[in-house]
User: What shape does this take?
Amino acid sequence: MKVSSKNDSRENILSAATRLFHLQGYHATGLNQILKESGAPKGSLYYHFPNGKEQLAIEAVKRMDVLIKSDIVCSLEKYENAVESIQIHVQKIAADFTNDEKLECVPIGILVAETAQMSELIRETCKTAVEGWEELYSSKLIKNGFEPEIARKLGVTINSMIEGAVTRSLINKDSQPLQLVAECIPLLLKK
Amino acid sequence: MKVSSKNDSRENILSAATRLFHLQGYHATGLNQILKESGAPKGSLYYHFPNGKEQLAIEAVKRMDVLIKSDIVCSLEKYENAVESIQIHVQKIAADFTNDEKLECVPIGILVAETAQMSELIRETCKTAVEGWEELYSSKLIKNGFEPEIARKLGVTINSMIEGAVTRSLINKDSQPLQLVAECIPLLLKK
Assistant: This one.
């Protein structure tokens, strides 16, 4: 019973931290707010996360990474054709963006860059995550007959386009920039 | 003499604010730090900027916008060929990125997205700035014979690619992602 309640506290703190970092960004989120939203007892934050905010950020990035990777894989597996599946993935992000809740969210790329400047450990975690997303796009392109070297460059470019377009849609307060970028995917991937 | 010193205070506060927002981001920068770095007298911040941090952010974005626009125009005017000039522009950003000082800077897109969620006035200022950059790319493409509708989409896409690649280079702590994206520009703009 005691073990389970300890695990609950850890999970509640990490959930609250991930949600708040994603909603407000890293700097705007304080440890007190995380603790309050988690409902966990006061001493438990440093008990479970002895390195405090840095450790919470690392765990939060890892958690977001799992969700993002699963979204990418889900889109890429839907169609054999790389161009079509990557385009549909961007259209899906655009469709998600019209949810009011998403409009309030900090794009992962921003959270990543905001925190990457503060700690080498956070930066390394972010780098591993983003490289994984790029790798998924590259592999899909290689399977579709692209040269590995070009596929690697395109993986970085596609991911950058998406991150930039999410930021741009946030500025626009609508999904139009993401939709326009989705329409340009076939131009970029024309053989 | 009095007028000139008043203008100096205003200019010093705005310079310090622009520099600090660009180095640390919006949330991480406090009014006290801006005032301290500016060397301006304590009362002068709210005298010159009655709306405080929001007003400073708006003026800082406008100031960065002028610099970024002039960089884009400078690159685009260098070569008649749109593909070549846009590619060289991204390579120039990559070269700038290897400066140690740039490595510490918050990409404008991040600053923009970080602040755009806090105030409609800041968001509108950011939107106008970014639309101006996209417009410069689109116009260059139209001059090179691209259809206006496609040129508009490509303008948004090119700008998103660049913003995403700056963020990605920050995570990498080197300019390689920007260089890879520069290499993909001819693929995107192949007619």
About this structure: Chain A touches chain B at residues 25, 27-28, 104, 106-107, 109-110, 112-114, 116-117, 123, 126-127, 130, 152-154, 156-157, 159-165, 167-168, 170-173, 177, 180-181, 183-184, 187-190 (CB under 8 Å).
